[in-house]
Amino acid sequence: MEKVVHVPEVVLNSGYKMPLLGMGTAACPMPIDDLTSILVDAMETGYRHFDTAALYGSEEAVGRAVAEAIERGITKSRQQVFITSKLWCTDAHPQLVLPALKNTLGY
């Protein structure tokens, strides 16, 4: 029998539910394939909230892990995964904000 993991959530002003337990990726200086594998393993154990930032160098691994988790049936869709990222202070100038956000979103 499959074990169901329940993680408490908070409802945001937008109406979306955010899991209160998340996995940070700040201290993960490793090859992208290794980090992707670790993140997929985390999703198998129940994690659905991941924190990243362009500065961490982990955004691509988070994206790859979500895609793999969907492909493997670990999660049904991207909408079931909550991802937080950050606009780094060096990009907080009016002319840099939009390019930085587009980079984070993969545009």
Strand order of the largest sheet: 3-4-5
Strand percentage lies at: 5-15%
Helix content: 25-40%
| Domain tally | 1
For the largest beta-sheet, the strand count, sense and barrel status come to: 3 strands, parallel
Quick check: average pLDDT?
Answer: 91
Shape: globular
What would you say this structure looks like, in words?
The protein has 107 residues and is α/β, with parallel strands linked by helices. It has one domain (9-105). The protein is built from three helices and five strands; from the N terminus they run βββαβαβα. It has helices at 32-44, 59-71, 94-105, and strands at 9-11, 17-19, 23-24, 49-51, 82-84. A three-stranded parallel sheet has the order 3-4-5, with no helix packed on it. Helix 1 crosses helix 2. The longest helix is centred in the middle third of the chain and has 13 residues, at 32-44. One of its GO terms (molecular function) is oxidoreductase activity. InterPro entries: AKR (IPR020471), Aldo/ket_reductase_CS (IPR018170), NAD(P)_OxRdtase_dom_sf (IPR036812), NADP_OxRdtase_dom (IPR023210). This is Chalcone reductase.
Describe the SSE topology:
Blueprint (H helix, E strand, L loop, with lengths): L8 E3 L5 E3 L3 E2 L7 H13 L4 E3 L7 H13 L10 E3 L9 H12 L2
Parallel strand pairs: 3-4, 4-5
Antiparallel strand pairs: 1-2
Helix pairs in contact: 1-2
